């Protein structure tokens, strides 16, 4: 006889989405690398100065002192800059974790993949969701303030970001389409979704150049929307099987 607790666990797992991967890993790792790579330059310069002074100095004491002072100032500035950049990446990681938590409570018809990257691919996928309405590529942005859209472009604080999120999620969707085609999974509807957390949007749900833009609290509603004819369960299982191979 199966203990009541095990029955309860099995019942819960059959009610909610299957979840694979770990959210927020990519921004944490990339954040450390991109934020503190200047330290390598500082270490190189410091090593040069030490070599210039020991054991056969060819720089004067005053020259070495000035150079060490300049290196110290540069290190302080770069560390402050790196700390700020790292904070932005960690904030992004927290946003991905929040979204992953919400996605975990989708019903059992859905399968969620967090933090996926294809071998040889260029894109880091925040979330890929396979459900009755299609396959969704969700890009999460945990930004303060507000964003606006003009002529199909996104502006934050009146400026277009250096890495436009709309272009980013479209590129991710294109890579997923290529992956699905190569896997022989047929012509499936792929939906690009840009989800904002803590950001003021003109509308809670909107379509911008074919990308669904929404707030965090509207994301699940968007995923449950019927965009096309429902995908057959057998086809969903085939797509899920191919995506699982990426992480196994």
UniProtKB/TrEMBL annotation:
UniProt signal peptide: none
Domain NERD: 91-195
Entry superkingdom: Bacteria
Keywords from the named record: Membrane, Transmembrane, Transmembrane helix
Alphabetized Pfam families for the sequence: NERD
Spans through the membrane: 35-54, 60-81
Protein's UniProt keywords contain Ribonucleoprotein: no
Name this polypeptide is given: NERD domain-containing protein
Organism name: Pontiella desulfatans
